[in-house]
């Protein structure tokens, strides 16, 4: 075996190892953020005296937690070279993603109807564009991810970006005062840093950004400002009032 062949194989092995570490590390980071964000209101609720949750919120928490755990399991399966199991589990992931969209949308609408805000604070209807926007972007990215499931480079990046799309709710609940003070700039901006991380990974490993990272990342980031603008319009408030009335 020539020295050149050995070097190529060694470089390929190092590249695969770097890729496994990156995707597994991203999944672990998502898991940490979700747990830290929802620890007081969900995972460790008995220790913080949080009021009893409704069945819908329990279902919401279970489904969204299952997605994060599944993402970590899927990255671990690929790292362990168990791609056949990864593909079979992917169909369960498709069903879980559909449930996330359905339950996430329903929860957002129901909560906007019943949540009470302090006097002078904006109506929950104004902020309904945020969770509904998260669900829309997640649906688009996850749909594209499953469509390109036979293209691993595209598929993996879209799965990460789709998960980033649902992180703002967890980030908004992190126990840091500056997040509540800064508001949307923080709970949108901090998750968007993961887009930067994926871009940097592309540059370091490929020498240029991957098209899936660029297109998916742009969809994610560009979707944020319009939601904040639309939420304050009379047309949106009328639509949101009609939508929440349907929820009873």
**What portion of the residues fall into strands of 2 or more residues?**
under 5%
Topology as a string of helices (H) and strands (E)? HHHHHHHHHHHHH
Rg, rounded, reads 20 Å
How many β-strand runs?
0
Mean pLDDT: 89
Shape: globular
Percent of residues in helices comes to: over 70%
- Tell me which oligomeric state these chains represent: single chain
Distance separating the two termini:
72 Å
Q: Report on the biggest sheet.
A: none
Number of structural units classed as domains? 1
Backbone structural class? mainly alpha
- Alpha plus pi helix count: 13
Low-confidence stretches: none
Short description:
This protein is mainly alpha-helical and 248 residues long. It has 13 helices and no strands.
Report on the architecture of this protein.
The protein has helices at residues 3-43, 45-48, 55-79, 83-114, 124-127, 129-147, 152-165, 168-172, 177-182, 184-206, 211-222, 224-230, 234-246. It has 13 helices and no strands. Helix 3 packs antiparallel against helix 4 (83-114), helix 6 packs antiparallel against helix 7 (152-165) and helix 7 (152-165) packs antiparallel against helix 10 (184-206). It has one domain. The longest helix has 41 residues, at 3-43.
């Amino acid at each position: 075996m020539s020295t050149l062949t050995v070097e190529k194989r060694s470089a390929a092995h190092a590249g695969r190892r770097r890729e496994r570490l990156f995707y597994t590390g991203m999944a672990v980071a998502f898991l940490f953020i979700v747990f830290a964000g929802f620890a007081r209101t969900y995972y460790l609720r008995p220790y913080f005296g949080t009021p009893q949750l409704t069945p819908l919120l329990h279902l919401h928490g279970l489904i969204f937690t299952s997605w994060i755990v599944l993402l970590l399991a899927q990255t671990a399966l690929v790292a362990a070279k168990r791609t056949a199991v990864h593909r079979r589990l992917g169909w369960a992931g498709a069903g879980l993603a559909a449930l996330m969209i359905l339950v996430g949308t329903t929860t957002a609408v129901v909560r906007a109807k019943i949540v009470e805000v302090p006097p002078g604070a904006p109506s929950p209807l104004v902020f309904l564009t945020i969770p509904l926007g998260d669900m829309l972007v997640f649906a688009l990215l996850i749909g594209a991810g499953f469509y390109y499931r036979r293209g691993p480079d595209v598929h993996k990046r879209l799965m990460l970006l789709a998960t980033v799309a649902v992180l703002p709710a967890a980030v908004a609940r992190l126990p840091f005062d500056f997040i509540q003070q800064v508001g949307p700039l923080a709970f949108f901006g901090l998750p968007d840093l993961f887009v930067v991380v994926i871009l940097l990974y592309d540059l370091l490993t490929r020498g240029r950004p991957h098209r899936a990272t660029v297109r998916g990342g742009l969809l994610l980031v560009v979707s944020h400002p319009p939601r904040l603008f639309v939420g304050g319009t009379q047309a949106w408030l009328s639509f949101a009032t009609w939508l929440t009335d349907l929820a009873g």
